[in-house]
Amino acid sequence: MVHAQDDHAAPDQDKRGRIIAGFTLALVIALCAFFLIEASSAARVGFGSLWFLTFLPAYLCALICYVGDRDGTRPASFYSMVPVAFAFIVVAGSMVILHEGVICVLMLLPLWLFFGWLGANMMRRSRRWTADQNTFRSSLVLMPLFAGTLEAQVPVPNDRYSVVREIVIAAAPEEIWPYAVSNRHIAESEGRWTFTQSILGVPRPRATTVTGFGVGHVRTAYWGDHINFEERITQWQPGRRLGWRFAFTNSTVQDYTDKHIAPDGEFLKIDTGDYTITRLSPTTTRLTLRTNYIGKTHVNPYAALWGEILLGDVQSNVLAVIKARAEARHRQGDHAQR
């Protein structure tokens, strides 16, 4: 009886050992890829590449399944759970050990889950038609090198995107204009709830100051206790339009948000912005805020979805601050007249 139990336990221990070996091997490869990318200055093979965001998770999850189920006897649920477990380990390790920012991790997670699942299930299906195991092992080892080399030959696009938010304010354009130009001493309680600032923790605007009036002068935006950047005025039409070009003269944005997403870096360039003030009636005005940026990765369409969320949240919060201040000023004017 004892021998029978031992014989039954041995295969289980061997299977657990293979799973641990598969995860360990995949994590070592992922860590090596991380440090190689960190040491590289080329955006096309970096964190914004198709290789890193799609092929690598598919390859690593396929590798885990290959090592963890050498005889192909595990159920489909094993192949579905591997990507979830691996993505969780990568995310936790990235934040705790590598100190990655939450924005970068959040953008990575959906792609790593989906393509990890794809790679795992491709491995499951491949066991039905792979006859030459030696050839298959060799191709599995060489796949990352081949994919990365191939993508490195593809030019990186420079695509322009715009994020637009607007709000209707119960005030006249001349009452709104001063708050479009500058806002001092913005309290933490001002603005509105947003996913980006309330959940992800991106600092909220604290103040916007201006050195003078008219084209050529500089607005300086302050976020939280540490972030600041310049907006150099390119359009000045009081009560109608204010435009600017962004100038990131320091690294505070990526230092206090996410180190891999610089606002004027290898993946992204936040370029210009503007306010447009449109009178709707004697007592209501529409204020529109536009931010224009350039995406410089092979996954621009996917990154643009996050740009719409993240930049859109920041814009919505700024517009809410202006609305509250302009409407308060309008009410004060009404009381003074009475």
Architecture overview:
The chain is an alpha+beta fold and 338 residues long. The protein folds into two domains: 2-152, no CATH class; 159-337, START domain (Alpha-D-Glucose-1,6-Bisphosphate, Chain A, domain 4), CATH 3.30.530. The chain is 53% helix and 20% strand. It has nine helices and seven strands, in the order αααααβααββββαββα. It has a seven-stranded antiparallel sheet. A hairpin with a 3-residue loop joins strand 3 and strand 4 (227-237). It is elongated.
Q: Treating each run of at least 4 consecutive H or I residues as one helix, how many helices?
A: 9
Number of strands: 7
Order of helices and strands: HHHHHEHHEEEEHEEH
Can you tell me the overall shape? Answer: elongated
Strand content: 15-25%
Return the domain count. 2
User: Regarding CATH, which class of the largest domain?
Assistant: Alpha Beta
Tell me the major beta sheet: 7 strands, antiparallel
Helix share, percent: 40-55%
Low-confidence stretches: none
Q: CATH topology of the largest domain, which one? A: Alpha-D-Glucose-1,6-Bisphosphate, Chain A, domain 4
Radius of gyration: 26 Å
